[in-house]
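Q: How would the structure tokens look for this protein?
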Amino acid sequence: MNKAGRKDKKPSWVMFGITTALYLVFLYWIGSWWGLIVLPLIYDLYISRKINWGWWREPEVGPVTRFVMSWVDAIVFALVAIYFLNQFFFQNFVIPSSSLEKTLLTGDYLLVSKLSYGPRIPQTPLYMPLTQHTLPIFNCKSYLDHPHWDYRRVEGLGHVQLNDIVVFNYPAGDTVALNQQNQDYYRLAYQIGDQMLGQPAATPDAQPTLATSTMRQGMSYDEQQAFYHRLYAAGTAYMRSQPEQFGQIVARPTDRRENYVKRCVGLPGQTLQIRNNVIYLDGKPNPQPANVQFAYEVTFKQDMPVELKKELGVTDEDLYTMRNGQTVWMPLTNAVKNELAHHPELVSSIKPAAPTADWLYPQNMQKNWTTANYGPLWIPKKGARLHLTLQDLPIYERPIRVYEGNDLQVRGGKIYINGKVTNEYTFKLDYYWMMGDNRDNSADSRFWGFVPEDHIVGKPLFVWLSLDPDYGWFDGHVRWNRIFKRVWDIK
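A: Here is the predicted structure in token form.
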């Protein structure tokens, strides 16, 4: 169409009115009127037509250009549509690990609702749709660090409730060693530093020397922190000196950190404690999930038959960790444990595995906690004021310093926040405590602490596809019985 033809085409006032109304409703919903700068483009598209948006469709344009531009037009439209759908409404998420088994399984594809808790206004708005932080093939960042906007969330359909399964950005993922992305950078630094102090040539795969066991009871806060600082400094120095093993050490903004999915077992303002694997909130036990699993040492007389593995839902990963001979460290639900106990021809003994005590959150605090007996600790709540002591400061220093951006220092036994001596702090955000149903095989809040509200992504609605990595396409790879099953219906 030539220029004169474009001018002769009648303005589409109806389409302009509908599009403008919907766009204004969207701007009102997200509470940002910067988008009004787009209105002149909408007006031109339907009314004035000064810009020839479809120049490549004109007869004088060659067929090759027309073909290429038709694909460019379709791809750009699809990417823009996906960007807005993923950012404000729904997002796909694949369960990457076994931390929520047997509730959500490795290979489950979930539809995650951003509307349930309210979508976040993007903090790093310029990124490639369908990627979280890395461009595949090119193996480089998929986002631009600037512009970077402050955290703000649009009002959603509700708030995180106790025992909700929640998708969130991994809080400890603000710093990552690119060749060890599945590892908590901070815990790894302390572990390596511990090894380095005990055996200088240690590698991250070596057994920890637990240099912290040499700490004296009753050490002052300054002495403890100096000791932990040496461990951390040794660990980070080692990682930076081994780029071929650990890769580049990078920082990531909140909304570009890895997505995790766990169960919320503690809400803002509650006091949480774990006693003998039971979670207590404000002194009252929180009911265990129906499919909760704990680790056992199981001694087999022979390999488990494939048919029984499928029947009980036992995965190859469950049988992966050998203790010695035929003894396996494996997670079991109570029902599966009882079923195995009824197979004396297969199993000779089942006994509870020892809980983990190494480098639990906070890593820089002397404590006698384990994954089975943890706490107590208070979960920060927005607007609540906390009395600070040097004894519990390590629990709250990361929220105060990192998540809420304050300058926190301790000098001469006194706490300074933003240069002022204080013994209290009022929190700006709500925080949550997240744990996996596979309790002894879950990297969760017991290892990296609180989840701030600005890290909350959304709520899984249903499983739209489920693929079992242990089996082939013609041998049970697709879990047909899980497709389109609502998450809250999974038992």
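The CA atoms of residues 7 and 429 lie 54 Å apart.

Residues 63-88 form the longest helix (26 residues).

Upvote if useful.
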